[in-house]
Amino acid sequence: MNRLPIIAFVSLGVIWGNNFIYMKMASQYVSPLQVVFLRVLFGFIPVAIYSVFTKSLKLSHVKHIFHFFVMSILATVLYYFGFVKGSSLLPSGIAGALSGAIPIFAFVLAVLFLPEEKASKAKIIGIVIGFIGVILIAKPFDSKLFEANSKGIIYMVLGSLSVGASFIYAKKYILPLGIKASALTTYQLGLGLIVLLFITDFTNVNNIYENLHVALGVVIGLGLLGTGLAYIIYYYIIEKMGAVVASSVTYIPPIVALLIGVFIVDEKIKFSDYMATLLIFVGVYLINNKPISKIKVK
User: Is the pLDDT reported for residue 93 higher than 80?
Assistant: First the structure.
């Protein structure tokens, strides 16, 4: 049982790392918004069941629906769309590497909008190093690669900024409510699903079933595992290992995505991309600035 939180930690990183290849594969058959809708739909189901089973949903929560709606836009609709669109335009390994920069964008927004957040020298250096990593992935000195990568990187950055903004909003308006995380996620995904119903063009959505592997990847990989089960595992890790360790799981998906890109789908990842990923990791570590080796499993 003492090993179970560690197994859960590694499993979550691997699950999230697999998301990028499935997003890229699915976008070859259906539109990015359709991918997002299917992901949220099949992610919402297990989270909702879990929340009902744990009795975390309360009628009294309805009065906070505006805040849940804002979170559904920032942390579901825009976030997932940016990542799906970015993954469709970039090699999956590169998209995964860029996802590691989420804490960098979140911290920049925190410094700008949360007075209690202070930018120490180490954190500022971390931001600079992390952004250098993002710029290196864009290949600014190679006009052809820069043109090919820039749009995808912009979408990945927009997705990262959106989910980063959701952290700030959650800290100011959601966490003080004292509502269980599973219930918050149920409301977030449920409202996001409603929004997606209105803005998604479902023309040819059945094209996803032309490839059984891709269809299973969206339903099981992105939905049930990558969204639904992933949230449940994440809450479990927070409970057993603490929030700092749980947040450090973001180090794993970029590595997994790069390995899948190189060894499974034969993507051409350059040495500079590996160096850029390393810089992003260093930047995130300096921003977190807390040695996880000193944190014990409960």
Answer: yes
Q: Where are the alpha helices (DSSP H) in 90-120?
A: 92-99, 102-113
Residue 106's nearest CA partner among 74, 133, 137, 81 is 74
Q: Is pLDDT at 58 greater than 50 in this prediction?
A: yes
Contact yes or no for 93/262 (Cβ under 8 A) = yes
Residues with Cβ within 8 Å of 162's Cβ and at least 6 positions away in sequence, in order, are: 74, 75, 78, 79, 82
CB contact set of 292 (below 8 Å; sequence gap of 6+): 244, 245, 248
Under 8 Å between Cβ of 48 and 236: no
Is the pLDDT confidence value at 289 over 70? no
- Helices 271-288 and 102-113 pack at an angle, to 10 degrees, of 40
Q: What is the pLDDT of residues 221-248, one digit of tens each?
A: 999 999 988 888 887 787 777 655 666 7
% of the chain at pLDDT higher than 70: 94
Q: Report how far residue 16's alpha carbon sits from residue 124's, in angstroms, rounded to the nearest whole number.
A: 28
